[in-house]
Amino acid sequence: MTVLLNLAGALGLFLYGMKVMSDALSELAGRGLRTTLGELTSNRFKALSIGVFITCVIQSSSATTVMVVSFVNAGLLPLTGAIPVIMGANIGTTFTAWLIALLGFGVSMTAIAIPLMALGFALFSTPAGQARKWGGIIIGFGLLFIGLEFMKDAVPDLQNNPAVYAFIETVSGYGFFSTLLFLLIGTALTVGLQSSSATMAITIVAASQGWLPFEAAAAIILGENIGTTITANLAALVANANARRAALAHFFVNVIGVTWALLLLRPLIGLVNEMVIWGGGGSPLHDPAAIPLGLALFHSIFNILNVSLQIGFVTRLADLVTRIIQEKPQPGLEFVVPKYLTASAIKYPETAVDAFLKESRRLFNNALFESVAHSLSLSRRQIQSKDPFEPWLRQAGPIQPYDTQAHFLSRIEPLFEEMLRYSSEILANHDLSEDQDHQIQAIRLADRRMLDIVKNSAVLNMIATRATEERSPEFRQEMDSIRLMIAKLLRSLFELFSQDPELRTREAFKALRRDARFLDGKIFREADELIRSRKITPAEGATLINASSICKHMSRDLVKTARTLYSDFHSIPA
């Protein structure tokens, strides 16, 4: 019992040290790494190298994979760009094994770990800044190796435990079935500890103390490669379909790798044995002192070979997981329930800001679009088609009453409330850069303009439908001009959205606003002439001028909102 408690305590210290070091490294280099990750496109080898680099820096393949899932969920990374990053994380995580093998077993770290922690504590005690982050890294580094040393000391001598030795000999004597058993142990241990590094440390310590033969330890390491995929799949449960596909791709990459490695396990172990001996060490199959180096080498060779074999099939793998995990439409909830404002997206400032922007675009393109179109008695199909509006307007007749308030309360307000809550959470929980803070405020202003657009569309509908049977033909003709102006503006905006981001310039949006201002002046002059010629009443003239003014303000807000969401942030895909 004492042995188990000592092992558990040593493992806890190791895990805590790993977490402290990983968190501090992420905080120190996180923003730059995430920015680099977000800029990946279709270059799979660049994506692969970034995955290796990020995992080596933050010392956690799970953290890298969860970050990738978050970026895919937010739409910052395409699936074909995410899979090579995950493959790179598999290679990068082998750095931890080398760290443990070379420093934890190659040299005595205990003598320098405690003085290092004293230095780390001194740095950590400083006010918030770079020094404090470096202090966290040093403290975590020291705790990690102290925990590893305690773990080595806690493992009892196998020679004093003949019953355990006999049990291990028996379990290891069933050939391939024994290999499968140890693989399952590695998988279960990694899932339970939620850390492949901890499983690696336990395996290296146990094997170096003679508790595990090298082949059994290698099988546990293969199992750890399956167990580590569970973390990303758990993180993706609350994410969108694309993020779940990325997590599933991680699982497939590692399971495929473990499958071929099991079939070639003996040749792989033979290769590792020859390489360690060639490098001047003993045989890891017979010399316990050579086992840490042998296992680190086995881990690296397996992951490098696995990635080399699968990197050419990224597109096919992406197609496979896309067929397995398909989007599930939610009838009636497509506009009310947020699509991008997920828990995984808010973990990082970059993904949080991007999710907020995408949700605002979604509100603009769907619920707001419907509100304005229906207030004019037009449909989405009519506005987005290339057919002229005039025949439709003649066929549809005058504008019909539309309950804009009901549409607002059921389709717009719930989503707007969620967006406001989400943006407040971003501002409260993240240390945003100046640009990111500006983006949040600009998007919030655009969202507020959308509310003004809805209110103005309701007023315009009310004006256009009030006492229609008493209106003169000239009045209806002028109202149709206003209606036509907004319809053409909506069509022009959506045509602009479909163009390349470089074409969505501020000048292009300004040109759309000029048309609305020109119409306002034209309506004012024509209303005056119609009143003087007694073709419309002064009351109708006042109504037309009021409607034209509302049209001008709606056009201004539509263009400004569209420019904010699609031009000012053109680097983010629409």
TrEMBL record:
The chain crosses the membrane at residues 48-69, 76-92, 98-122, 134-151, 163-184, 251-269, 289-309. Its main location: membrane. GO terms for cellular component: plasma membrane. Keywords: Cell membrane, Membrane, Transmembrane, Transmembrane helix. GO terms for biological process: sodium-dependent phosphate transport. It is found in: Cell membrane. GO terms for molecular function: sodium:phosphate symporter activity. Pfam families: Na_Pi_cotrans. It is a multi-pass membrane protein. InterPro entries: Na/Pi_transpt, NaPi_cotrn-rel/YqeW-like. It comes from the Bacteria. This is Phosphate:Na+ symporter. It comes from Roseibium marinum.
